[in-house]
């Protein structure tokens, strides 16, 4: 495993046949900044563009900068001594079209249909009684005319006072049983909905962790990233609820929630948009297609 770290440096040594003004213009377009600021990259013999990179990332930055015509080199910061001073450190550039292969923002819509298995209970039929008769109290079929009714407890051979007590207790027991069954049937859908929402809310914690990471990055570097790599975030950010998190233009990022987690045919999105409000970085997360019932309170819309 390569444990070395690298930094990318722009030098002011330009070939004689190169147009310096054109190089400055290309650098300004690459870094998305003014030509005046881009010209500062060529004022010093060496200017650090990005440091603490792995070899693959350093080579990508080197290729993008070299294409502008500027002189660029990669330095192994572990082997080099002494290290170059931090003259200036522009944030990582938005790689131009030839290097956009690692900025994949296309989202695949996965259609998954789940079949819900429904259990059906079968009623047992009372049959094959040798001496069928009906209870005079509730009409339930009994084995014999003298048998105690299994439904209401009526005993035709017992004293009347005993029959009344049995019927009373049987009615209470049946009432309690019915209430328990009704309460279970009513509460089950609410519990399932609550459990589903709670699971999605916990999964969306990854989105807010990403928001906090981007906020800290902007406050530290004063640069608004346009892709995951700009903010030192992995390209693939996901969990069992979130399918992907992709940073777009001006630090806006899109959270795609898995269709399976929502029990939907297609995934839905939650969009985080940052802005400065009285020198404070704030976020708006009311955009996207995610249903209101699954959104955190601060992200709910006014739709009913």
Name its key features.
alpha+beta, Ribosomal Protein L30, Chain: A, 3 domains, four-stranded antiparallel sheet, 6 helices, 9 strands
Give the low-confidence spans.
81-113, 125-131
SSE series:
EHHEHEEEHHEEHEE
Helix percent reads 25-40%
What is the CATH superfamily label of the largest domain?
Ribosomal protein L7/L12, C-terminal domain/Adaptor protein ClpS
Task: Give the topology.
Blueprint: E1 6-11, H1 20-31, H2 35-39, E2 46-53, H3 55-66, E3 71-76, E4 133-134, E5 141-142, H4 160-203, H5 205-221, E6 242-247, E7 253-257, H6 259-262, E8 268-277, E9 280-287
Antiparallel strand pairs: 1-2, 1-3, 4-5, 6-7, 7-8, 8-9
Q: If you had to describe this structure to a student in words, what would you say it looks like?
A:
By secondary structure, the chain is an alpha+beta fold. The protein has three domains: 6-102, 2-Layer Sandwich (Ribosomal Protein L30, Chain: A); 135-194; 204-299, Glycoprotein, Type 4 Pilin (2-Layer Sandwich). Helix content is 31%, strand content 17%. The chain is rod-shaped, with a radius of gyration of 36 Å.
Write a compact overview of the structure shown.
31% of the residues lie in helices and 17% in strands.
